[in-house]
């Protein structure tokens, strides 16, 4: 039995994949710029990846939650 | 001004009083809560599968954030700069939640359905192999021991740096306090203590960050020191290689095989309980790691020297040097210890659990009643903690590096758990081959990269790399290859076993 992802679910997982790619921010590799007067740009970008991850996981939980697994766990073995 | 700041504050007993009061409060709170646990093994080992979203988030996060996240990240940033955040923190925000979602929820469901309490029970059931269980037991315990060491060594470094207390004494007190509430309350006590301690260390971390930056002349001045004196730490160039950075992403896969995390997953009331953890985990990591990384590079920029070249002590030195108020120093020390103890407690409980269920009960059957099983688990916990404590008395390597080696070992077993829940064709022989290859590869590389040089008295400065990549890459590649090749060469698992574990479907739904 295979379940299909909704469009929202696909989008949510695509965002997770995008963040995984963006995590390798090679364009910041040698950039020693400081933003807001104290925050190195490389650190700021990676912190934004963390915030983006929370947003992406919110979308995954909202649109791609594995409801069937919970139902399966709640069914006793004897019922089947 | 920097020179003035570098004048170390005289050691005062006040920080120790503050820590003492905190430990007593923690003990009282934990023992009070642990009364619910008496007499029931199900309550002691998996909190009757009744933990809600907030407690699960706090216990999972508190468990994964140990001395590695505070002491280790600060020290590593001091040595290698801000790139450390991308190496572990932001990568973990993506990968930890991914593992919680794709592996954790499925294992919770299987655990609930078949009443499993430990990883080894699950693997024995899934692969129908007793031998696999006996093989996994020493491997998992062997990997948890360095994880415990990280906590004990980190606690010793912090308290010595701030209050001058010998590391052996700190280790003894920390182990004693954690053992006291774990031995009475089990996993629920660990979860409740974790929640309290996670709140404490996050608040204290923010306080430390604010006070330390203030003592360095403010956020801008603290970073300006780095721009002026150690600008190389503001970027990854020259500090971290490209392949090294990319291959570090394999390290956080370790959460899929942490036995203590597996046990926390099983305490969840429902699958929905995981939602808060999956979403909030990346933000919580950021809240802890960004300040620690900045404090590490600020220390380097301010010319702070790591005592004896040991970067484990940088955080403690910054707290001790920059903060003249001993009450505040005590509070910060308590916060750092809270982070460390919130990992130790779960690891202690987990060791007792796997010994009780996977060795004692598995071998002796119903010979022991529930109370006797809990007692045996407690005895094993004390024995392992004693061994770890003795190991902690020897000169420790860098906390961050030791942690990465430990996590790499667990990550090398990650292909096994993925195959167990997603690949119907995976066989017992394949699983055994994978564990043997993972264990052997880890042991050989660990000896070559860390243990051998440490025993020879060599100072280990940089990461041990293979072809520019972290050794975890080789470990995962070889264990995966062994799993796949041997599984395909051996008889497939029975239809009944496959039906038992895979009949719920294979993908998520929208």
User: What's the average pLDDT of chain B?
Assistant: 85
* Count of all domains of chain A: 1
The CATH architecture of chain B can be given as Up-down Bundle
Overall pLDDT of chain A, averaged? 89
Strand order of the largest sheet of chain A: 1-2
Sheet with the most strands of chain A?
2 strands, antiparallel
Cα Rg of chain A: 19 Å
The proportion of strand residues of chain A reads: 5-15%
Number of strands of chain B: 0
CATH class of chain B: Mainly Alpha
The SS-based structural class of chain B is mainly alpha
Strand content of chain B: under 5%
| Count of runs of 4 or more consecutive helical residues of chain A | 3
- One letter per element, helices H and strands E, the order of chain A comes to HEEHH
Low-confidence stretches of chain A: none
Contiguous low-pLDDT stretches of chain B (5 residues minimum) are: 1-10, 506-510
CATH-derived topology of chain B = Sodium/glucose cotransporter
The greatest inter-chain interface is formed by: A-B, 57 and 58 residues
- Coarse morphology of chain A: elongated
Straight-line distance between termini of chain A: 16 Å
CATH superfamily of chain B: Sodium/glucose cotransporter
């Amino acid at each position: 039995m295979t379940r299909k992802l909704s469009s929202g679910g696909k989008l949510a997982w695509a965002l997770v994949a995008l963040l995984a790619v963006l995590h390798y921010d090679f364009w910041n590799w040698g950039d020693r710029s400081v933003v807001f007067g104290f925050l190195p740009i490389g650190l700021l970008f990676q912190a934004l990846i963390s915030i983006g991850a929370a947003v992406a996981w919110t979308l995954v939980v909202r649109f791609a939650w594995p409801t069937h697994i919970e139902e399966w766990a709640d069914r006793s073995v004897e019922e089947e | 001004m920097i020179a003035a700041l570098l004048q170390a504050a005289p050691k005062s007993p006040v920080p120790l009083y503050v820590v003492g009061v905190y430990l007593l409060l923690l003990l009282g709170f934990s023992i009070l809560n642990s009364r619910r646990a008496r007499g029931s093994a199900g309550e002691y080992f998996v909190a009757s599968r009744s933990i809600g979203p907030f407690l699960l988030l706090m216990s999972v996060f508190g468990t994964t954030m140990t001395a590695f996240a505070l002491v280790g990240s600060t020290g590593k940033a001091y040595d290698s700069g801000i790139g450390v955040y991308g190496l572990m923190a932001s990568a973990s925000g993506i990968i930890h939640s991914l593992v919680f979602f794709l592996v954790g929820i499925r294992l919770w469901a299987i655990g609930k359905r078949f009443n499993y309490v430990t990883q080894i029970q699950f693997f024995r059931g899934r692969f129908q192999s007793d031998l696999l269980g006996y093989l996994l037991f020493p491997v998992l315990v062997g990997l948890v021991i360095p994880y415990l060491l990280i906590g004990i060594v980190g606690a010793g470094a912090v308290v010595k740096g701030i209050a001058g207390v010998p590391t052996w004494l700190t280790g003894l007190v920390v182990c004693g306090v954690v053992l006291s509430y774990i031995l009475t309350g089990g996993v629920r006590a660990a979860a409740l203590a974790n929640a309290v301690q996670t709140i404490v260390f996050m608040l204290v971390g923010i306080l430390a960050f604010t006070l330390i930056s203030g003592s360095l002349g403010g956020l801008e001045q603290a970073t300006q020191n780095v721009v002026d004196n150690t600008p190389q730490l503001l970027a990854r160039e020259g500090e971290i290689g490209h392949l090294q950075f990319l291959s570090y992403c394999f390290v956080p896969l370790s959460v899929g095989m942490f036995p203590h995390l597996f046990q926390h997953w099983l305490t969840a009331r429902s699958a929905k309980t995981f939602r808060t953890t999956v979403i909030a985990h990346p933000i919580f990591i950021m809240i802890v790691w960004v300040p620690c990384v900045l404090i590490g590079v600020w220390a380097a920029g301010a010319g702070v020297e790591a005592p004896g070249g040991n970067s484990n002590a940088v955080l403690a030195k910054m707290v001790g040097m920059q903060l003249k108020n001993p009450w505040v120093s005590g509070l910060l020390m308590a916060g750092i210890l809270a982070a460390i103890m919130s990992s130790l407690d779960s690891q202690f409980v987990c060791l007792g659990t796997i010994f009780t269920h996977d060795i004692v009960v598995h071998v002796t059957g119903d010979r022991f009643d529930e109370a006797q099983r809990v007692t045996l688990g407690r005895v094993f916990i004390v024995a392992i903690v004693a061994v770890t404590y003795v190991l902690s008395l020897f000169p420790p390597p860098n906390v961050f590096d030791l942690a990465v080696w430990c996590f790499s070992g667990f990550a090398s077993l990650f292909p096994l758990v993925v195959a167990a829940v997603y690949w119907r064709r995976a066989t017992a022989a394949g699983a055994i081959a994978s564990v043997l290859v993972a264990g052997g590869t880890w042991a050989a590389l660990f000896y070559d990269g860390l243990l051998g040089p440490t025993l020879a008295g060599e100072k280990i400065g940089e990461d041990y790399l293979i072809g520019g990549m972290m050794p975890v890459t080789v470990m995962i590649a070889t264990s995966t290859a062994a799993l796949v090749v041997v599984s395909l060469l051996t008889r497939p698992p029975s239809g009944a076993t496959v039906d038992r574990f895979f009949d719920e479907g294979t993908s998520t739904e929208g």
